[in-house]
């Protein structure tokens, strides 16, 4: 089927089944364009709770769909490709969280939403890259267990003055780990007037070269309000597609064209269509896990509202 045919079939199924499509900023352009709501993990978590829908097709990775399922037990949450699993989330099994809590009984546990639900059920509160500093600053504790991304933990420590203990010791996003200071310097030589926007999952030496440290949603906001015409974008290339589409008068340069999340790109329009048509693959979180993880997520939403 052509993209136009698929789009028409998806539109008809959404109306028939009262369904919506949520898509992360790192999705391929065709899926971005088909989404009812496009955004980062925090924005999509909020949107999943606000929408009037019976079925939510989540074009993202596993932990994102789990968040939507936890927040909306009355809705059927689907993921088009069940192999869309975040490697970083898999670096923090619940066993490691429990061990860290035993070793640091007075510490607050803040887990990045890029973590599987079972681990998040052990957290006091979750966070995203957009609100991590705000969440940690809102806590009374000065000692924070933070996982799974070590680079985001470093960013939080620099901006809160609290003792941040990363769990695991070296959790990381393989895409953001690709970026080097030399990549940015080369682009700045070519485009000296460009603003450098860096995602906080990047290494500290890369963050230090940023004009602004930004989540994906914050990069969109910065591009909109900045007087600059050029931007060096230090995150997954999917966001560059959206930036170029929404701000065609400006130029956006990805630090690496190879900065691609293979797991995010597992979804395509055909899979979105089949997911909605066949109502699979259903994302389910055990009720006892969901209840605890939902509390940590809801606390995050309260702090960042």
TrEMBL record:
Pathway: Cofactor biosynthesis; NAD(+) biosynthesis; quinolinate from iminoaspartate: step 1/1. Iminosuccinate binds at residues 24, 41, 112-114, 129, 199-201, 216. Binds 1 [4Fe-4S] cluster per subunit. It comes from candidate division MSBL1 archaeon SCGC-AAA259A05. Catalyzes the condensation of iminoaspartate with dihydroxyacetone phosphate to form quinolinate. This is Quinolinate synthase. Its main location: cytoplasm. The lineage of its organism: Archaea, Methanobacteriati, Methanobacteriota, candidate division MSBL1. HAMAP family: NadA_type2. It is an enzyme of class 2 (transferase). Keywords: 4Fe-4S, Cytoplasm, Iron, Iron-sulfur, Metal-binding, Pyridine nucleotide biosynthesis, Transferase. [4Fe-4S] cluster binds at residues 86, 173, 261. The gene is nadA. GO terms for cellular component: cytoplasm. It is found in: Cytoplasm. GO terms for biological process: 'de novo' NAD+ biosynthetic process from L-aspartate. InterPro entries: NadA, NadA_sf, Quinolinate_synth_type2. Belongs to the quinolinate synthase family. Type 2 subfamily. Its cofactor is [4Fe-4S] cluster. It catalyses: iminosuccinate + dihydroxyacetone phosphate = quinolinate + phosphate + 2 H2O + H(+). One of its GO terms (molecular function) is 4 iron, 4 sulfur cluster binding. It comes from the Archaea. Its EC number is 2.5.1.72.
């Amino acid at each position: 089927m052509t993209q136009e045919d698929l789009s028409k079939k998806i539109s008809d199924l959404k109306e028939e089944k009262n369904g919506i499509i949520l898509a992360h900023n790192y999705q391929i352009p065709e899926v971005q364009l088909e989404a009812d709501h496009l955004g980062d993990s925090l924005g999509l978590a909020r949107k999943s709770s606000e929408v009037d829908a019976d079925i939510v097709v989540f074009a993202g990775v596993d932990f994102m769909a789990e968040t939507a399922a936890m927040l909306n037990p009355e809705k059927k949450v689907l993921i088009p490709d069940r192999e869309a699993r975040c490697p970083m989330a898999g670096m923090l099994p619940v066993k490691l969280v429990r061990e860290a809590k035993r070793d640091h009984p007075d510490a607050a546990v803040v887990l990045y939403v890029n973590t599987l639900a079972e681990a998040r059920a052990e957290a006091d509160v979750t966070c995203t890259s957009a609100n991590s500093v705000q969440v940690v600053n809102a806590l009374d504790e000065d000692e924070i267990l933070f996982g799974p991304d070590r680079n985001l933990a470093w960013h939080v420590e620099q901006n809160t003055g609290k003792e941040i203990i990363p769990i695991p010791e070296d959790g990381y996003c393989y895409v953001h780990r690709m970026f080097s200071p030399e990549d940015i310097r080369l682009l700045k030589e070519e485009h000296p007037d460009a603003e450098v926007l860096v995602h906080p999952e990047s290494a500290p030496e890369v963050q230090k070269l940023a004009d602004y440290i930004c989540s994906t949603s914050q990069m969109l906001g910065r591009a909109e309000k900045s007087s600059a015409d050029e931007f060096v974008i230090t995150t997954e290339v999917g966001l560059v597609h959206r930036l170029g589409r929404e701000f065609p008068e400006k130029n956006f340069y990805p630090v690496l064209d190879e900065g691609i999340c293979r797991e995010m790109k597992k979804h395509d329009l055909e899979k979105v269509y089949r997911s909605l048509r066949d109502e699979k693959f259903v994302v389910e979180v055990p009720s006892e896990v969901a209840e605890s993880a939902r509390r940590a997520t809801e606390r995050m939403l309260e702090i960042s509202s």
